[in-house]
Write a structure and sequence with these properties.
Elements: H1 2-10, H2 12-22, H3 36-39, H4 41-61, E1 64-69, E2 75-77, E3 83-88, E4 95-96, E5 101-105, H5 108-165, H6 172-226, E6 229-231, E7 236-239, E8 248-249, E9 257-261, E10 269-273, E11 286-291, E12 299-306, E13 333-339, E14 353-359, H7 363-366, H8 373-407
Antiparallel strand pairs: 1-10, 1-14, 2-9, 3-5, 3-8, 4-7, 5-6, 7-9, 10-13, 11-12, 11-14, 12-13
Helix pairs in contact: 1-4, 2-4, 4-8, 5-6
Amino acid sequence: MLELFLCSMLTILPDFLYRRFAQGKRLGHEINLFTVWYELRWGITLCLILTLSLITTVFYFHPSTKAASAVFRTVTILPETNGRVAETFVEINQRVTEGQQLFRLDSTAQEAAVESAKRKIAEVEAGMITAKSRLAEAEARIVQARGAFQQAEDELQRRAEVQSRSPGSIAEADVERVRVQVQTAQGAVDAALASREAIQSQIAFQLPAEKASAEAALHEAKVALEKTLVVAGTDGMLQQFALRPGDIVNPMLRPAGILVPDRRAAGLLLAGFGQVESQVIKEGMIGEVTCMAIPWNIIPVVVTEVQPVIASGQVRPTDTLVDIQQMARPGSITVIMEPLYQGQLDALPLGGNCIANLYTSNHDRLQDPEVGALSRLGLHLVDTVGLVHALILRMQALLLPFKVLVFGGH
């Protein structure tokens, strides 16, 4: 409507003034409801053409959208294991800090596993003490076996010398019996040495490995016990937290609630613009927004990022082929905007909706001396008609509370 009014000032009004003062045709006589379409045909036709051209220029070079929102993320409160709630430490809508305890699951089984792992470690440590005692016993048996071996060997040498000095004085069977005793004593020594090596290997390798396994099991049990206590991962406010002792919590099917993290200091707005404006929207563009939650305010913003992909064209791996007709609905260009001056969006609640305008600026191109006269005129025209969109945004900001509260039926 504003564009039509402005264009009529440049087309219909001059045509009427010419008809009235140059041709003497009066409003209500020669120019009436039935003849106005003929008498002012040039002005009306030019007005329609100029209005359409102005609207196209304004909305193309100065994009506008009502799909702008102060988006925020949420954190689902979930334990890592299933369990029954034993105790809760917070209430709904309570502000929490990172690391603050939220609730605790029943930990009877985990505590039993921790105690069992501790007992296993104590058992292995007792086995190490016993093995050291057995090692001392094996050392004593080696000394005993070597003594018996030395006695048998000395007896064999003595009998051999007597036999060599006076053959036949000692029976050959007695000599053979002593020789067997020497071999038996040697075997006893070897057995004692092998027993000592086995005990040493047990002390050096087997028992430490068993202790390490028991310590790992204890660590695993403690980790499982710690998982029964759920804490806040970040600062924020709890929402939909209605757990009570006795409730069952499942990380796949039944979350405990939602944590809304504290907002970023700078504040962000995400806006969706039409695809036809993708060649115009660039990083660094200046814009303005007016939000329903902070009425009668125009906040300058700057485009900090333009998403290079359109969400409606995404394809995910599935077991069915994608029908391209399902993507016929055109998606929007996602634009991230921040306030030009810090703190201007702090009063906007998270999730608040806004109306956003972006303005094309050709100031740098106009400074180029190689730009021709017609191009310079066109660039000036593009920058100038942005004023129309700025006026429309201010009219929307002025009428928005009345539209919502009065005409919206609220």
